[in-house]
Amino acid sequence: MSSRSDVVVIGSGVFGLATAWELAKAGRSVTVLDRAPVGAEASGRALGRLDPLLRGSGSTGQTEQDLPAGQIAKPEAQQELTLVSYNAHRELTPEIEEISGIDLQVDEQPTLQLFYSQEEHDFGAQYTADWTAMGFRTDLLSADEIRGFDSRYLPTEFGGALVYGPYFIDSLSFVRALAECAKAAGARLETATVNSVEQGSGGATVHTDQGHYAAETVVIAAGPWSTELVKPFGVDLRVHPSKGEILRLQPPGGAGFGVHIHGPCSLVHKKDGLVWVAATGEDAGFDRTPTDHAKSQLLENARVMMAESAEWPIVEHSVCFRPATPDDLPIVGSVSENVIVATGGGGSGIVQCLYVGRLVEKMVTGGDAEPQNDAISLSRFG
Ligand SMILES: Cc1cc2nc3c(=O)[nH]c(=O)nc-3n(C[C@H](O)[C@H](O)[C@H](O)COP(=O)(O)OP(=O)(O)OC[C@H]3O[C@@H](n4cnc5c(N)ncnc54)[C@H](O)[C@@H]3O)c2cc1C
Question: Quick one: 1-104+167-241+319-382 is in which CATH superfamily?
Answer without folding.
Answer: FAD/NAD(P)-binding domain (3.50.50.60)
